[in-house]
């Protein structure tokens, strides 16, 4: 395997190198030799799917995951690939990544919450749309966690009664657990107001992406303030590109941003986004295997702490990286998977089990579909068609 991070490209932290196309061969299979596509079955339906297909490959720094959702086009999916290539060491990380984190902390008068030195990061449990009688069994997979994020609006506003029944059961079982909600942009502005009024009694830490557009989030925050509803708004789907959090901050559309390593193009890019926005951040997964979750854990370990973050999110930010519990099988044995133990996961690298890679492998047709998709994204990264 050729070490392109050393032999073909310089550091990407300078303006010149950041603006220049990467000096990569035309085809990914000239660099990525150990490519696997696996299908991970899920405990229950989540984000409308019951299984997750992910691509895994290794590089000079270790294993990485490429797993954009199947509906994403090449431009959006290419940012995911850039993050994966960086995490694997097949393209260089910004050499100023650590300095950028330190600089961000200095500018914002804070210190990193943790360092990527084997410590753990706190995670939240995830409660998908499910009948109330399944709440306890689903959350039992996470063990003891101090924070849970519940999915709502699976079918838009039509799901409200089901959501309320599930949340009432949750609060009966876990009266002292911190609760977040995530609507995945499932409401119209008028529906969001009504939903917020219904959810206000559950003591939310924040409500994630109730409406689709940034402007709608800003209007919703203004209306919530007018009505005296104490609900903190977080932006997730509104943050797909590096410039998005800046617009969220400029319009006052949210008080918290949700950041994900792959969609933003890598750990360094995500840290830049957090610093530039000036908003408290929560790292979340993109429904990845343990290999992909490892990149999120490293970013979570570098989150800066500020007064605003402490006020809203507490001393130890619970990140959305416990989603490994949503799979019935992972690419490593259960005792080696990056799943929560007492509400935390370690900051580490994951090496897939060869037997698991074979057992979970997709059929040849799906492998070829992903290989073609990866090549299209590779070409976009190589030609600098992918932007932050």
TrEMBL record:
Cofactor or coenzyme needed: a divalent metal cation
Keywords: Lyase, Magnesium, Menaquinone biosynthesis, Metal-binding
Superkingdom: Bacteria
Residue ranges occupied by any Mandelate racemase/muconate lactonizing enzyme C-terminal domain in the UniProt entry: 132-227
Active site per UniProt: 151, 260
Residue sites binding Mg(2+) per the record: 182, 208, 236
Gene Ontology molecular function terms on file: magnesium ion binding; O-succinylbenzoate synthase activity
Pathway(s) it belongs to: Quinol/quinone metabolism; menaquinone biosynthesis; Quinol/quinone metabolism; 1,4-dihydroxy-2-naphthoate biosynthesis; 1,4-dihydroxy-2-naphthoate from chorismate: step 4/7
Enzymatic reactions: (1R,6R)-6-hydroxy-2-succinyl-cyclohexa-2,4-diene-1-carboxylate = 2-succinylbenzoate + H2O
Pfam family, one: MR_MLE_C
SUPFAM superfamilies on file: Enolase C-terminal domain-like (SSF51604)
GO biological processes: menaquinone biosynthetic process
EC number: 4.2.1.113
Protein's job: Converts 2-succinyl-6-hydroxy-2,4-cyclohexadiene-1-carboxylate (SHCHC) to 2-succinylbenzoate (OSB).
Similarity field: Belongs to the mandelate racemase/muconate lactonizing enzyme family. MenC type 1 subfamily.
Protein name as annotated: o-succinylbenzoate synthase
Organism name: Brevibacterium siliguriense
């Amino acid at each position: 395997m050729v070490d392109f991070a050393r032999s073909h490209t310089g550091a990407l932290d300078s303006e010149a190198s950041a603006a220049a196309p990467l000096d990569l061969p035309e085809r990914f299979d000239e660099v990525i030799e150990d490519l696997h596509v696996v299908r991970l079955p899920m405990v229950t339906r989540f984000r409308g799917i019951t299984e997750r297909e992910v691509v895994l490959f290794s590089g000079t720094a270790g294993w990485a995951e490429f797993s954009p959702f199947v509906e994403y086009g090449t431009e959006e999916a290419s940012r995911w690939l850039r993050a994966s290539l960086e995490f694997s060491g097949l393209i260089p990380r910004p050499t100023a990544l650590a300095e950028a984190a330190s600089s961000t902390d200095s500018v914002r008068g804070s210190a990193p919450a943790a360092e990527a030195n084997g410590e753990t990061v706190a995670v939240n449990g995830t409660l998908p749309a499910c009948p109330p009688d399944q709440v306890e069994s689903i959350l039992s997979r996470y063990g003891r966690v101090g924070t849970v994020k519940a999915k709502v609006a699976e079918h838009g506003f039509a799901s409200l009664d089901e959501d309320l029944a599930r949340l009432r059961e949750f609060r009966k079982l876990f009266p002292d657990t911190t609760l977040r909600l995530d609507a995945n942009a499932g409401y119209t502005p008028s529906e969001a107001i009504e939903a917020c009024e219904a959810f206000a009694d559950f003591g939310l830490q924040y409500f994630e992406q109730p409406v689709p557009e940034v402007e709608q989030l800003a209007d919703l925050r203004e209306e919530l303030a007018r009505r005296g509803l104490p609900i903190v708004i977080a932006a997730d789907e509104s943050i797909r590109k590096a410039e998005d959090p800046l617009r969220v901050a400029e319009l006052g559309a949210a008080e918290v941003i949700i950041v994900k390593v792959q969609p933003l193009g890598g750990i360094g890019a995500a840290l830049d986004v957090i610093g530039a926005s000036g908003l408290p951040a929560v790292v979340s997964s993109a429904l990845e295997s343990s290999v992909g979750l490892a990149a999120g854990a490293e970013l979570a370990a570098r989150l800066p702490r500020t007064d605003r973050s402490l006020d809203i999110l507490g001393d130890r930010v619970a990140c959305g990286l416990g989603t490994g519990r949503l799979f019935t099988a992972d690419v490593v044995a259960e005792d080696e998977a990056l799943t929560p133990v007492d509400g935390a996961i370690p900051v580490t690298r994951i090496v897939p089990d060869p037997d698991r890679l074979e057992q979970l492998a997709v059929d040849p047709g799906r492998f070829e579909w992903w290989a073609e998709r990866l090549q299209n994204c590779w070409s976009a990264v190589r030609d600098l068609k992918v932007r932050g």
